[in-house]
Each structure stands twice: as C-alpha cells, then as structure tokens.
Design a protein that fits this description.
Helix content is 1%, strand content 46%. The protein is mainly beta. The N terminus is likely disordered.
Length: 371
C-alpha cells in the first residue's frame, strides 16, 4: 500500500529549529522516482576513473556489497529512459560470519556500509557493525563499531585490515566522508579529508532518529592512522574552526534531537554551499518514532525529509526544504552526488532508499529556485 492510499489522518511534524536559507527560495522535485538494483544505504563517491561507486546494504543475500554506477542521468528523463547502469563489483567485500560474532552485533545482518571516498584512485570504504536496538522505549538501530577497508582496483580486491575493527567506537561508530573534492578528490580545498559522525547525546551512535552530528578531519594521506584524526570543537574569536585530537571534546555541528539521520554531505561547487539531506521517522501524530521500534513490517512509518545548506561544514545549517510525508512507507539516507549536479548547481539528483517500492538505488531530480 502506498502512502496516498492511507485512509486515516496524518499529522504534520514540527519544523526543525533552523533558520531558513537566504540562498534557496524553493525546490521542485520531479514527480517520478527511478529505481535500479536492490538494497539500501548507498554511500557514494566520484571515482578518479569518472564512475560513481557505492556500497549497498541488505542486497542479494549479502548484508553489504559494492557497486559501480556507469553513466549519468539524462536531463530530459522520462519514466522509461535513463542512461546510468549499476554493476555489481563485489557481493561480499567482508564476510559477515567473521565480523558478526560479537554479542553487541546482529549475527546475520549486522555488517553495513557507512561512508566512501576516492583519494587519487584509492577507495576508502567505511563500514560499521550494528544491532537493532537495546532500548524498547525508543528502539533505534545502533552502530557499535566503525572501521575502514581500502582498494586500489575499484573494489575488485580489498585490504580488509587497513584499520582495526574498533577504529572508531561509541558515538564515532558511523563514518561518513564528505564529498567535496570531485573525481578522486582532485578539487579538495585543502589537504584534509572530512567526515561526519551521526550520534545520540547518550554517547552512542544511531542509524535513525539520532540527536546530532560531529565533524572530524584527517590529512588525506593518513586516513587509516587513528592518531592523525582530529575533531571540530568550536570557533575561535576570528570565527575559525578549532580542532582537537581528543574526540571527547568534539562539538555538535548539527542538532535535531531524536530526528537526526545517518546523513551524507556533498559540496555544490557552483552554489558555494554544502548540501545535506536529513531523514527522520515519524508516527502518525508527527512524533519521532524509530524505523525499528516494533516488529517489522508492521512498524514501518513515514519519514520527514529536510534539506539544508551551509557555507561551512560546521554550520550554521539553513533549512530550504521540508516534506513531512516523504516516501511511501519511510524514505531514508538521501545524498546528492557531485557528479550529478548541473545547470550552474541548480539541478541536482537525489539518491535515496526506502521501504517497499523504494528499497532500491532510488533517484529523483530536483531543481532549485534561488533568491
């Protein structure tokens, strides 16, 4: 059953506590969503070879696999046309049996993709271990550990021990690389790679309905060296960011309590703005309700989609779009590939996933109206 077929009243959610964008006046989404493949999550990066690459979760009987996306959207798309194709590169980059034996991890599907980035031809693939919640009153899917594997042949083979499995833990357990450097990160504004960490204010990390996001950076040649990572802790008197190697001092760059998703950020070069999509699961009264709160599939709820822009990764983030009834039965993990930004940055394509019909590599065009 699709969302429009529901016969009962659905209340609106609260507007997130952010200023409205002073750059983007409106958003027009194409009516159609285009689907390929199966599965969800889909962290993306623009490879040095010109292709997009992505990880997927819960796909082809694998909890995590790896894909190449050839081609790009057609600006004159119709419901029957597309010029991009998904190729499965590796159905088992990591064997779940090896990694999911821990008592804090789901034994079958606890291995998931988190973030991905290409640095001059080397892929850094951040993965995470998960369970399906420990708090029956607000049962959020929990990330318990995050680490990085690498590949020099675009996913044909992997260095599975590039970092230890507990490279990041607790509120840093989900590593999401910021996409700002174009193909192979050649456009990067400095010599650092940046990553965000979605988390809860209880010191844990969550896949859905978290509370906030943290920001880290590392020299681009030292990504797999934990001691070289540092974290944003605030601004100095000149409004310049302060960084610390102490992750306990990390400050929130985005806060939407009980409504923060496992978000991705991409830089829109032509607009000079970072773009972030946030997803939050809601009940029919408009209250936060995690996707895994009850017995699947009876628990499936709708989502709120909110889109934000910022001149800086640390904010302030400004709201330019809100949809309190996104997806048919809960859409999630929106991202905006840099490769698919056109028309002086005013046309983008959103990749996402969701329940039922949208449990795919789901693509939808949107056009921005600037002020």
């Amino acid at each position: 059953m699709k969302e429009k077929e529901r016969s009962y009243k659905i209340s609106k959610a609260a507007t997130p506590p952010f200023e409205k964008s002073d750059l983007i006046a409106g958003v027009s989404f194409d009516y159609h969503r285009y689907h390929q493949g199966n599965g969800d999550m889909w962290p993306l990066t623009w490879g040095l070879d010109g292709h997009l690459y992505a990880g997927a979760g819960d796909n082809r009987l694998s909890p995590m696999n790896f894909w190449r996306i050839r081609g790009e959207p057609n600006m004159a798309w119709t419901v029957y046309s597309s010029s991009w194709f998904l190729d499965l590169v590796d159905n088992y980059p990591l064997d779940p049996v090896t990694y999911c034996r821990r008592p804090d991890c789901d034994p079958r599907t606890g291995l998931k993709p988190a973030g991905l980035i290409d640095i001059t031809g080397c892929l850094y693939f951040a993965v995470e271990l998960q369970n399906y919640g420990i708090n029956p009153d607000f049962n959020r899917q929990e990330n318990v550990s995050g680490w990085i594997i690498t590949s020099w042949d675009y996913g044909q083979t992997w260095n599975k021990t590039a970092t230890p499995v507990d490279f990041f833990t607790k509120r840093l357990s989900s590593i999401h690389f910021v996409q700002q450097g174009g193909p192979g990160n050649r456009w990067a504004p400095d010599n650092y790679v940046y990553a965000t960490f979605p988390c809860g204010r209880d010191g844990r990390s969550y896949w859905e309905n978290g509370d906030c996001m943290l920001l880290g950076r590392v020299p681009s040649g030292r990504i797999v060296d934990r001691e070289h990572w540092e974290f944003y802790t605030g601004l100095d008197k000149s409004n310049l960011p302060i960084w610390s190697s102490d992750d306990k001092a990390a400050a929130e760059i985005f806060a939407y309590p009980s409504m923060t998703g496992e978000n991705h950020i991409s830089y829109n070069k032509d607009l000079g703005r970072y773009i972030m999509g946030n997803y939050s699961f809601l009940d029919d009264e408009g209250n936060p309700r995690p996707y895994h709160q009850g017995i699947w599939p009876a628990n499936i709820e709708r989502s709120q989609l909110t889109l934000f822009e910022s001149k800086n990764l640390w904010g302030p983030w400004k709201l330019f779009y809100q949809d309190d009834n996104w997806g048919y039965w809960g859409g999630y993990q929106p991202c905006f590939p840099q490769k698919w930004m056109y028309n002086s940055g005013k046309t983008m394509f959103m990749v996402s996933s969701g329940s039922y019909d949208d449990y795919n590599f789901t693509v939808q065009r949107l056009d921005l109206e600037l002020k």
